[in-house]
Amino acid sequence: MKKELKFVVNGESYDLWVEPNTLLVQVLRDELGLKGTKWSCDSGSCCACAVILDGRVVKSCSIFALQANGKEVLTIEGLANGPELHPIQQAFIDNWAFQCGFCTSGQIMAAKALLDENPKPTREEIQLAMDGHLCRCTGYNMISEAIQDAAKRLQA
Questions:
Q1: Is 0.85 surpassed by the pTM of this model?
Q2: Where are the beta strands (DSSP E) in 60-99?
Q3: Homologous superfamily of 87-155 in CATH?
Q4: Which has the closest alpha carbon to 106: 92, 122, 121?
Q5: Is the pLDDT of residue 106 over 70?
Q6: CATH numeric code, 3-78
Q7: Eight-class DSSP state of 135
Q8: In terms of C-beta distances under 8 Å and separation of at least 24 residues, what long-range contacts does 10-15 make, across chains too?
Q9: Do domains 3-78 and 87-155 have the same CATH topology?
Q10: What are the pLDDT digits (tens) for 7-48?
Q11: Which string of b and e fits 22-39 if b means at least 16 CB within 10 Å?
């Protein structure tokens, strides 16, 4: 039996009816068409599906959509201001912090949550925040450098 889901995604209110076992990633991708949130591992181990739920980064493949009821969700699509990329997105581009890009949206969302909480993270704090984000292409140095660069851009 479907249940009502009322929540805000990227600043826009939604009122949907979903099955209780529907995952948040399914609603974001299939119901709202927000394909930037990737669905990869089916086990919550890669973090490609990371979004920000009420200020905290979560794995959207590991929580039910109804757990977002009455809450705010921010996805990668909600970061840019029209054609202007968010400073974190631009820092990832400028620092070559991605190659295939599949895991990048989850990493950027984790970086956003980190920088919202800690505007001047150390390299160790960045590595801890990114723990669990699997990237098979870049190695992790460029990702850490991009987050450090983004921190400087956001402070300016």
A1: yes
A2: 72-74
A3: [2Fe-2S]-binding domain (1.10.150.120)
A4: 92
A5: yes
A6: 3.10.20.30
A7: -
A8: 10/34, 10/73, 10/74, 10/75, 10/77, 10/78, 11/78
A9: no
A10: 999 999 999 999 999 999 999 999 999 999 988 777 766 788
A11: bbbbbbbbebbebebbbb
